[in-house]
Amino acid sequence: SQQGEEDPQALSIQEGENATMNCSYKTSINNLQWYRQNSGRGLVHLILIRSNEREKHSGRLRVTLDTSKKSSSLLITASRAADTASYFCATARGNNRLAFGKGNQVVVIP
Amino acid sequence: NAGVMQNPRHLVRRRGQEARLRCSPMKGHSHVYWYRQLPEEGLKFMVYLQKENIIDESGMPKERFSAEFPKEGPSILRIQQVVRGDSAAYFCASSQNGGQGNTGELFFGEGSRLTVL
Fold this sequence. Notes:
A: six-stranded mixed sheet; B: four-stranded antiparallel sheet
């Protein structure tokens, strides 16, 4: 199956709460990336974590990578209504492409 | 610095017609990727091109689909004799450094939404 598969969930949270979503993959990777997609728009890169890194921060985003479990998580802290979007993880395996999961839809209620 | 430009944003075709989707990468980017997205699905890789070269087309259907990235001008994804199952959003992405072991950040266009009647 496709590399990079998020837990198939739709999150609905209140503004100010944290949102966590997970991603698992099956083979070794060079890096893992998270993207956001607003409805009807293109994907926007959020953060990249390399296979030799365990945790990375960018603003309100925190990404972890556990290569032994072949999984990653994306945490959005203090969520805002503008964070409402679909979030995709994607894995790079050195074969000229990123493989995307099916995405998690996050709805932040003001 | 303009981002990745795709056109048309929306395209309606009848079965059997041809669809041509265009993509201009970000300035300075020479690596172009095409992905297809079905409703409520993730992105499926189709093809990876550099100027005048198709590097990886393993995600392209064997028939009716072709892609090019000429020396001058945008990358083109061409779908001949479209069928209803071709209805999808087609995204182009570009990068400064391509494949060869460590695909980095991709910059996406807004997509071209093809509807086949």
